Amino acid sequence: MFGDLMGMMGKLKETQQKIEETKKRLDSVLIDEQSSDGLLKVTLTANRTVKSIEVDDSLLEDKEQLEDYLVLVMNKAIEKASKVNDAELGAVAQDGMPNIPGLDMFK
Length: 107
Fold this sequence. Notes:
Subcellular location: Cytoplasm, Nucleoid
Strand content: 15-25%
Subunit structure: Homodimer.
GO molecular function: DNA binding
CATH topology: Ybab, Chain: A
CATH superfamily: Nucleoid-associated protein YbaB-like domain
Oligomer: single chain
CATH class: Alpha Beta
CATH architecture: 2-Layer Sandwich
Main location: cytoplasm
Number of domains: 1
Protein name: Nucleoid-associated protein EG849_04150
C-alpha cells in the first residue's frame, strides 16, 4: 500500500515539474493577432504576457476607435493564447495523473 502511495507521490512530483517546465516553454510561444484591416497588431506569449503592440498612425487620430481596436484585438489574442496554454498544460497534467479510484473524471 505504501509503495503505491510513494509511487503516486513521485508521479505527482514529476508531473508538477513537467508543468513548470511547460509554463517556462510557453513564455517563448508567441501568439500574433491583428485587426481585420491590419491597422493594429499584438503579440502575446502563450502565458498571456503582452510582448508587442503595433498601431498604425491612422488610428492615432481617433482615440475612441483606437480603444475599440485594442479591446477587440487583445481579447482575440488572449483567447488564442488561453487555448494554447490550456491545451499544453492540460495534456501534461492529464498524462501525469496517477490512477486514483474516483478521480478518473480527469482522464
